Amino acid sequence: MKFNLPAPNRNFGVVDTLGLVGLVGLLIARYIPVARLIPFWGCMLRQTTGWPCLGCGLTRVADRVAHFNIPGALQANPLGTVAALLFALAALAMVLHLAFAMPIPQVELTEREWSRVRIALSVLVAVNYAFVVVQTRFPHLLM
């Protein structure tokens, strides 16, 4: 793993893009009740089968994180909560980078490290989905 700290700059990069997406998404979640305004909003798989999809709870996560209800967001979808908080962190980094020319560290991973990251993410997604299924279908097991 290699870390590189570039010279102070205001070049728009990947972290800035993720920060902008996160900022817009969290502002929408904070001020616009999307799930109430769009009549067909919701998980079609869960509505038809009763089983949640991989993304079930992400609207609630965005709403709860935007309203600073982190425990409620973790209950809806733990991995989605981590992603929403990382988007918020990227938004903060974007503001600091573009306003004050704060350099954003660049990380370079080897192919072996990328392989480990992919495996870890696969395991995290599987465990998160298992939690969402248990919470949706078998909530008595979590008490």
The description of the largest β-sheet is: 2 strands, antiparallel
- N-C termini distance: 41 Å
Instruction: Give the ordered list of helices and strands.
Output: EHHHHHHEH
Shape annotation: globular
The spatial strand order of the largest sheet comes to 1-2
Task: Specify Rg, calculated over alpha carbons.
Answer: 18 Å
Low-confidence stretches: none
List keywords for this structure.
mainly alpha; 2 strands; 7 helices; globular; 4% strand; two-stranded antiparallel sheet; 143 residues
Topology:
Blueprint (H helix, E strand, L loop, with lengths): L1 E3 L9 H18 L2 H4 L6 H6 L8 H9 L3 H7 L1 H23 L5 E3 L2 H27 L6
Antiparallel strand pairs: 1-2
Helix pairs in contact: 1-4, 1-6, 4-5, 4-6, 5-6
Question: How would you describe what is shown here?
Answer:
There is one protein chain. By secondary structure, the protein is mainly alpha-helical. The protein has one domain (2-142). It has helices spanning 14-31, 34-37, 44-49, 58-66, 70-76, 78-100, 111-137, and strands at 2-4, 106-108. It has a two-stranded antiparallel sheet with strand order 1-2. The N and C termini lie far apart (41 Å).
